[in-house]
Specification:
about 90 residues; alpha+beta; Arc Repressor Mutant, subunit A; three-stranded antiparallel β-sheet; about 45% helix; elongated; disordered N terminus
Length: about 90
């Protein structure tokens, strides 16, 4: 990929934990009720999630555009290389 066309999410080294990646994957499917825990706080701080207040007054976490870009990047890496420990043709 040309360096000029990389997204902000690809340029940053995020260093997300497995729990934070899991929380981001949950947000990709639907907003989650706001319960402030460290995983969601880290996603908020990284700009990968946002707090949204619905008409009902309930606050929920939702994935941001940058969060979706990070998941797309992770999916492309897994598709290309396979999961750790999984043999993919061309890789040892």
């Amino acid at each position: 990929m040309n360096r000029k066309h990389r997204t902000d999410a690809q340029r940053k080294r995020l260093g997300l934990s497995a729990h934070e990646v899991g929380a981001l994957m949950l947000l990709d499917h639907a907003p989650v009720e706001s319960r402030m825990n460290l995983d969601f706080r880290a996603l908020l701080d990284a700009g990968l999630a946002e707090s949204v207040v619905r008409d009902s007054g309930i606050s929920r976490f939702a994935i941001t555009r940058n969060g979706k870009e990070v998941l797309l990047l992770l999916r492309s890496i897994v598709t290309e290389r396979g999961m750790p420990g999984q043999h993919v043709s061309g890789y040892v």
